[in-house]
Write a structure and sequence with these properties.
The protein has seven helices and seven strands. By secondary structure, the chain is an alpha/beta fold.
Amino acid sequence: MNISFSGRVIVVAGGTGGLGKAVSLAFLEEDATVIVTYRKEEEFRALKDSAGPKASSLAGSQVDVTDEAAVVPFINGVLTQFGALDVLVNTVGGYVGGVKLWEMTTRVFDQMLALNLRSGYVLAHAAIPAMLKAGHGSIVNVAAKAALDHGAGMAAYAASKAAAVALMDSLAADAKGTGVRVNSILPSIIDTAVNRLAMPDSDFAAWPKPRDIAQVVLFLSSDLAKTIHGAAVPVYGNA
């Protein structure tokens, strides 16, 4: 994909995770300045090691992106230090499944809402005013196929992902005509080490790879996708 993000400032929330790492590295490869949020210091160090000579264009902050009191100063710090925020990608999320609704704890339900819905709200709420002021920007939120495919045993997960799509769809309507674009992507089960460990008997070849999903994120974030706004893009691999 012939896309350059030279001179662009990108925030990748959850940028050291299974998908987030691939997204962060893909933007770095296209000459972006990338700022990631992370929860574990060792994961950020691993990302920097993987970035090689591009590590000089990488920064990070240990932030709980479900906490508005932490996210607002983080975004303000990005704007102060780097002078812009061109792209926000939210790869933060969590999964709990295999539990019938009547067997689920409220704690699990609240956790799914926090990771899969509240994170997108808090990040977008903090970031979009600067984008509106600049007259351009792109927000890409990672939801899931489960936003549309509400299978058994995943009530909290499916509900949180469906709500995340609705949130971004409505935000896109709010931002129409401003120069700021808002889109979601809907991966199926992503081929990560964590998912392989959780489902060892699955057909891994059918799962979309993090790097392939990252290329979709790059496209949606780029000027080549200037006509794509308010979309929820399926990224199902061969599943």
